Amino acid sequence: MALADRLPYFPRPDLLAEVTALLVTGANVTLFAPRRQGKTWFVRYELLPALHEAGWFAARVDLWRNRDNPSLALVEGLEAIAYATPMSALRRPLTLRTVRGTFNVAGVEIVGNWEPAEAPPSAEVSLENRLAKALRIISGKGEHCVIALDEFQALAEKSAENFVAAFRTALQDLEGSLSIVFTGSSRDGLTRLFNRAKAPLFRSAHSVTLPALGDDFVESRANYLLDVAGLEVDHDALKKLFRTLCRVPLFLNEVVLWMLIKRNPSIEEAKDAWMQSKQSEEFGELFAQLSDLDIAIVMWLARSGEKSVYTEDARRIMGIMTDEVPLPAYKVQARIRRLTKHQILEPTGATGQYEIVDQGLQILLGERLDGFIKELEKGASSPAPPSVQLPDV
Ligand SMILES: Nc1ncnc2c1ncn2[C@@H]1O[C@H](COP(=O)(O)OP(=O)(O)OP(=O)(O)O)[C@@H](O)[C@H]1O
Ligand SMILES: [Mg+2]
């Protein structure tokens, strides 16, 4: 567990009410949000425990438990859940908190006290049959059962099409007794998957967007710093920083952790340290592999507030940055293809529009572009400063 994950969980009661109200009707739910916004934490620390408390059988499989083979990851994960047995009262951990059990299988969890058991030798050979069987067994584990499938977009590859169709059929047979919460960070992946599997069950899954955390989350972090370390931070400045950090909770937790470790309440210094660590530890290598035009494209998306990369304004600014004015669209197109292939950008679904996948990269490059624009504006000589209005983050 990363250190930032030791900070306390901040509850999302409205979201919990919204999702449980849907599940109670027997619906399936898709929970979408960009990376690191808190989908997994919400499901693990709030949704599944709440459903368990209400008497549901609640479990979760992370499809990235086997990145090379998400279909197998799903089947094996579901089998681990299907054949798990309730832990005998004598062997229960001596703790008052029984909600989080000791079930320990990588990328799989069941809320409550369960232990893994060997799957009986199966006559089923095909993955599809194993999948249907495991789902059937799980649906008998409680009056209401919910399975959260994390990183479900991992099945968006065309090669998994038949498997996804079989999954949909198996779920249809169990409608009413088993609900699924699909989560994913790739809007493109989930949309492709659900559109391709043109089936009522997928189409009827209710889509819930994870709302971004707000000022009360920031207050909770400031109070935590005061409570555990006596550090008094400027609440307004911390709120402003959270907006600069694209309201990504992980990033604020990282900043707060730095303050805690350094016993330093300076938000400016914490922010600089965060930027530097992202630059050197996460993105240094990536930057070295990007061409000037790649960087210009990503910078434009990071800071302009636009998602389109082919507009006149976009190409003018990118042209100034790369010293090629006018910048032809085909050159942009070639780089875009490469950037999406390497999952640095993702299409939004609208023609010619893209988003940066990693918001850490977005924040870092946004800051750099600010510096670049300031330089341009300072320089009296040509090139003329860009006239486009770049909004504040
Ligand atoms: N409600 C919350 N309270 C406190 N911290 C949170 C909360 N939600 C998320 N975080 C912080 O953000 C980090 C990322 O959360 P999480 O792993 O749930 O994101 P995710 O949306 O599932 O990301 P990914 O798409 O990369 O899987 C957590 O490790 C935690 O530090
Ligand atoms: Mg996650």
Give the count of helical stretches.
15
Topology as a string of helices (H) and strands (E):
HEHEHEEEHEHEHHEHHHHHHHEEH
Tell me the strand order in the biggest sheet: 4-2-6-7-1-8
Radius of gyration: 24 Å
Most strands sheet: 6 strands, mixed
Question: What would you call the quaternary organization?
Answer: single chain
Task: Report the portion of residues in β strands.
Answer: 5-15%
Under CATH at level 1, the class of the largest domain stands as: Alpha Beta
Quick description:
The protein has helices at 13-24, 39-53, 70-83, 127-139, 161-173, 187-196, 200-203, 215-229, 235-244, 249-262, 267-289, 292-303, 312-322, 329-341, 359-378; strands spanning 29-32, 57-62, 85-86, 108-110, 114-115, 145-150, 178-184, 206-209, 345-347, 354-356. A six-stranded mixed beta sheet has the order 4-2-6-7-1-8, with helices on both faces. It is 51% helix and 10% strand.
